[in-house]
Design goal:
Strand content: 5-15%
Number of domains: 2
CATH class of the largest domain: Alpha Beta
Strand order of the largest sheet: 1-12-11-10-9-8-6-2
Number of strands: 24
Number of helices: 27
Radius of gyration: 26 Å
Oligomer: single chain
Largest sheet: 8 strands, parallel
Length: about 750
């Protein structure tokens, strides 16, 4: 009989309890012990929600990030963090968030943050020092195993694999990360021995880089590493996800592990060959429930194509989601406001666990015809696509001509200062929005409240001396959800929260039908903000590819088709803003990089249609209208060509945490358009020093021409307080003014 198990589960709780616990702790309202107790309670509830599983995973729960957890598990703590404090929990959060504005005695920069493969989850990049030593700190994991057994469950620890961990790390000594493999494997073996002593039979070891293009060196490293690990006690379930193995399939089937997990939906055609390649008694875990999307699985259809493998492998067949369920909301039960026609098609984490149990039941039946008959009605009919017309992808003139026209129309100073778009979402704003949604505040009253917030935001920006202003986005709960509420074909979840990083959660919309713009979405409030100032106010829109990648998307048509529908909708809004007199329009593509397939051959096709979607959304404006875009927290070096092809007049991009890698790459590729490298990290509460910011501006100028450079934070300010935002922006504006004066005096 097949076993059912899971690779990972949402951490945040049914009502984002983890977010509230963390933020209470960071404000000093609860102690270390109280945070530990509350988070442990959340984790134990997660175990109960997966009680039907044959074995439950341990080690997938995290206070902030599982990659950061791995670093601390193996003693990889940057020296600057160790110098700041000796307290392990304080070190952990310093590495994740940096020091607070008032913690001068513990000043430390946060680690670099970037996207977890092609998802919207962010991880803290490991930092390996020259001569890095690894030390095992397994007390927390061992404690969880004890509690799991006390709760009556069989525990399967989850570890990030050594090769994936090294591939994600940056080495301060400039060496290949594989130079650290022997020392790292030593502590992995030590941990596996401890787990075996604890009575653990199976250990899930995640190696998602096996679904990427690997060099011969890294393939050799896999053979070496798992030969070493095979000498340790216990059984390893080598786990892959986020795509197909392709040329790495032969590699994984020859590694000395007790079991392997693959995405069976992606590998359905290869399954017969994979089954034949298994060693005697080797377990095959098949990801048969989509861990990345929210649509119900066709269980009867899945049972039918699985049956031959079930009959052949029996107890050696394990069934699971394709990847961790971290990437979907917790439960459909909370979605009480959607039409039944939509909710009946949805399955979140809890429902996906139930689907596994239902699938096992179907496979145990002796009557395959009964399973086949149940397939009727499970698959929803495809939704019709309307012809959107021929796309127009090019601006009227090349950038050099546009820059001249825009300089004359806008008359902006050198080192132009601006922000990315959002300003603090205060408790007062959230309270007013909640009252309005409950009908306790009329639409007119709510609109006046929002206008008052916009007026205060414009006034504050003028007082700070910013050159290009924004309206602050007080009316927007989220940069994607806001537009999802206003577009046809998109549904908004009530409690469909997904962790993005730490305490930051997002609520992805559900794109279930053809997407259309039915009315202006941003014009009224943007033009109101512009009426309050003589300085230009940016129109703020979310780009089509970011809406696509930060939504749960219908799977009956291609993503390229959905992106084109979104692009036409955004294009209509761009042109409406221009017609209303808005001279700068920002179309954010923060998620362009993360939707890219992990294989380069597939990535090229994705980047082609993704860039075309952006250009379709922005290409209709006049030369004098300046198009901005923003991108953040991804590794951009391998998509520089795509960024250049977007042809935005101004690109704002994260640079505060990741250093100057992207600027160096842009310089090497001869980037000519304007760029605003993020000058400080908004995700840290620390207030940047004015002199440090001025030095960064000088450094930026060593990579690109002065007339190309804008000055801005690296992301929006919605998560910061007004005090933090004002102080940081004040330092930024002062730094820009000082650089201008120095440039003017030669």
């Amino acid at each position: 009989m097949a076993k059912i198990h899971n690779l990972g589960f949402p951490r945040i709780g049914p009502d984002r309890e983890l977010k509230r616990h963390l933020e209470s702790y960071w404000r000093g309202e609860i102690t270390d012990n109280e945070l530990a107790g509350r988070s442990e309670s959340l984790w134990l509830q997660n175990l109960q929600r997966q009680a039907c599983l044959d074995v439950v995973q341990v080690g997938d729960f995290s206070l902030y990030d599982h990659v950061l957890d791995t670093s601390f598990l193996f003693g990889v703590v940057p020296e600057r963090i160790q110098r700041a404090t000796e307290d392990p929990l304080q070190q952990y959060f310093l590495n994740a968030r940096g020091s607070s504005a008032d913690a001068v005695c513990c000043a430390a920069n946060a680690g670099e943050m970037t996207k977890w493969f092609n998802t919207n989850y962010h991880y803290i990049v490991p930092e390996l020092a020259a001569g890095q030593t690894f030390r095992l700190n397994a007390q927390s994991l061992l404690h969880q195993i004890t509690l799991t057994r006390q709760a009556g469950f069989d525990a399967k620890p989850v570890l990030l694999g050594p090769l994936t961990y090294l591939s994600l790390a940056k080495c301060e000594d400039g060496l290949n990360a594989l130079t650290h493999v022997d020392n790292l494997l030593r502590v992995y073996k030590e941990l596996l021995s401890l787990l075996a002593q604890k009575g653990v039979e199976w250990v899930q070891i995640d190696e998602p880089i096996l679904c990427t293009d690997l060099s011969a060196e890294w393939k050799m490293a896999f053979r070496y590493a798992y030969e070493v690990l095979s000498q340790a006690p216990g059984k390893l379930l080598l786990t892959t996800y986020f795509g197909k193995l392709q040329d790495n399939l032969a590699l994984i089937t020859t590694l000395p592990v007790a079991g392997i997990h693959i995405d069976a939906i992606a590998h359905r055609q290869e399954l017969p060959a994979i089954v034949e390649s298994l060693a005697d008694e080797q377990v095959l875990s098949l990801g048969v429930i989509d861990g990345r999307n929210v649509w119900r699985a066709p269980l009867a259809q899945t049972a039918n194509w699985l049956r031959p493998f079930h009959d052949k492998l029996q107890h050696r067949l394990w069934l699971a989601p394709t990847c961790s369920l971290l990437h979907v909301p917790l439960s459909v039960k909370a979605e009480t406001t959607l039409p039944d026609a939509i909710t009946s098609r949805l399955a979140f984490a809890e429902e996906k666990i139930d689907e596994l149990a239902g699938l096992r039941t179907l496979l145990q039946r002796d009557n395959p015809e009964q399973v086949a008959s149940e397939q009727e009605g499970e698959v929803s009919p495809p939704l019709l696509i309307e012809d959107a017309g021929a796309p127009v992808l090019f601006r009227e003139a090349p950038y050099a001509s546009r820059r001249t026209a825009q300089a004359k129309a806008l008359n902006l100073p050198s080192w132009t200062t601006t922000t990315i778009g959002s300003f603090p979402q205060t408790p007062a704003i959230r309270h007013a929005r909640a009252q309005w949604r409950k009908g306790q505040l009329s639409h007119a009253e709510y609109l006046q409240f929002i206008k008052d917030q916009i007026a205060d935001c414009i006034k504050t920006q003028e007082q700070l001396g910013l050159d290009v202003l924004v309206h602050g986005e007080a009316e927007r709960n989220d940069m994607v959800e806001f537009f999802g509420e206003l577009l046809d074909g998109v549904a908004i979840l009530k409690n469909g929260w997904v962790q993005s990083y730490g305490s930051r959660c997002v609520k992805p919309p559900v794109i279930y039908g053809d997407v259309k713009r039915v009315a202006p979405m941003t014009v009224a409030l943007t033009t109101y903000a512009q009426s309050l100032t003589s300085k230009p106010v940016k129109g703020m829109l979310t780009g089509p590819v970011t809406i696509l990648n930060w939504s749960f998307v219908r799977d009956d048509i291609s993503q390229a088709q959905v992106a084109q529908q979104l692009a036409f909708a955004i294009r209509e809004e761009v042109l409406a803003l221009e017609d209303a007199g808005i001279r700068i329009i920002q179309v954010d593509e923060a998620a362009l990089r993360e939707g890219m397939p992990l294989r380069q051959a597939e990535a090229d096709d994705y980047l082609n249609w993704a860039v075309n979607a952006f250009r379709l959304a922005t290409s209709g404006v006049r030369n004098e209208t300046q198009i901005h875009t923003h991108m953040c927290y991804s590794d951009f070096n391998n998509i520089i060509g795509a960024i250049m092809n977007m042809d935005a007049d101004v690109l704002t991009i994260e640079a505060a945490r990741s250093g100057l890698k992207v600027l160096s790459a842009l310089k090497d590729h001869g980037y000519q358009n304007s760029i605003g490298p993020g000058i400080y990290d908004i995700h840290s509460p620390a207030i940047p020093d004015e002199s440090v910011l001025a030095k960064r501006l000088h450094t930026f100028a060593s990579f690109l021409e002065q007339q190309q450079l804008w000055v801005n934070p690296d992301c929006g300010l919605k998560t910061r307080s007004w005090q933090e935002a004002s102080r940081a922006l004040g330092a930024m504006v002062n730094a820009a003014n000082n650089v201008r004066k120095l440039a003017a005096t030669g």
